[in-house]
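Example 444.
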Amino acid sequence: MSYVDQVIEEVIAKNPAEPEFHQAVREVLESLRVVVEANEEQYKKDALLERLVNPERQFKFRVPWVDDNGQVHVNTGYRVQFNSAIGPYKGGLRLHPSVNLGIIKFLGFEQIFKNSLTGLPIGGGKGGSDFDPKGKSDREIMAFCQSFMTELCKYIGADTDVPAGDIGTGAREIGYMFGQYKRIRGLYEGVLTGKGLSYGGSLVRTEATGYGLLYLTDEMLKCNGKSLEGATVAVSGAGNVAIYATEKAQQLGAKVVTCSDSTGWIYDKDGIDVALLKEVKEVKRARLTEYAAARPSAEYHEGKGVWTIPCDVALPCATQNELDLEDAKTLVANGCFAVAEGANMPTTMEATEYLQENGILFAPGKAANAGGVATSALEMSQNSERLSWSFEEVDSKLKNIMVNIFHNLDDAAKRYGMEGNYVAGANIAGFEKVVDAMNAQGIV
Ligand code: NDP
Ligand code: 2IT
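Predicted structure in complex with (2Z)-2-iminopentanedioic acid:
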């Protein structure tokens, strides 16, 4: 049995009931097969892949908090410090009832390669909790965040592990967590990113993941003789990534006609009204039915359905495995020519293969959504030098980073004879730098 197959088997056997983690490992190791085969003896002797798929450290802790009626609730908190070969652990905190150790490990594993692709000195980590922020009062959110940070603060720091936002964790939650960290540790330092602008945050961090997704998509299309100008775009999700992806797509001349949340989706034939979407989601924290009620050109549908709308470019920006084989077939049949992942692993492996086999340009999340964490790293730089850069300065750095990422994965795919396979390109380019650093640092 090949070394890659052996390690995939071991991951499945040793990490039962973690299907998302198995999926992420399988996807990465399958595309590293060519690289591993060229170095098989040495990698095997050094147990390189075993070290790559086993987190350096993982924490699981109790998070008790009191609701507005005096009822005590207990959630589970996680932080997985996956790989620190190229820098301090860096990665978001997900607050969603579906969170479990396997989901945090899949996200942490992806983060290693994503962070490497940014070209900035950040290792891979991820955390979160099965806490559900929906329908909670501000005081309940604060109570949860303070309790969560009371435990998490023992394991993080500006030079060791720097968390940030992800699903369910935005500016409000980061603010409460930062306050509690400072209070307990007595340190005013850049321990979290995605902070508010009045206390060490960076301009463009809010927009960064969505904007970065479009900068990379734009470059990928240009290099393949296509354009966003006049293109019809389908976006899923209605959170941080989806909103700013929609905004930048429109700025680049595309028409975005859909968005979605966990209960339903919108088809807006006149194009999504971003100001209204922000009002509904960022200010009122309401459902998409409110968007439809305020916008005559919009249809609201219950359930899932964004990918049934004919589009040129599809941008899944909600959550993992939201675009399956049936959706991929519909997109291809409707003439879609590019899919770029704003979310982490939103496309199933079968759907990804189908899209690639049918000549669709496919940009994987670990490259396409790296603008968020890249701008987090720029926030860390600003915190270290105790300065704040202008919007234009951060935005132009972000754009450069995304264009460079695209060319790095394009080059890596070409070097291994897989031109146009950006999934393989991203995994190989991300892996090369991490492996170089791991080898230089000995068996740790
Ligand atoms: P938000 O919490 O801001 O928004 C998430 C959106 O996705 C919401 O519209 C939410 O709907 C929807 N959603 C979440 N879970 C599900 C589900 N199980 N089924 C259907 N819809 C769902 O999160 P972000 O926009 O920050 O994150 C979106 C994706 O992008 C995630 O995969 C995240 O890991 C990834 N990402 C985020 C980055 C960032 O900087 N924020 C950086 C890189 C990647 P509802 O409100 O109804 O739950
Ligand atoms: O998945 C991701 O890259 C994020 N949620 C952002 C992480 C970060 O540290 O900014």
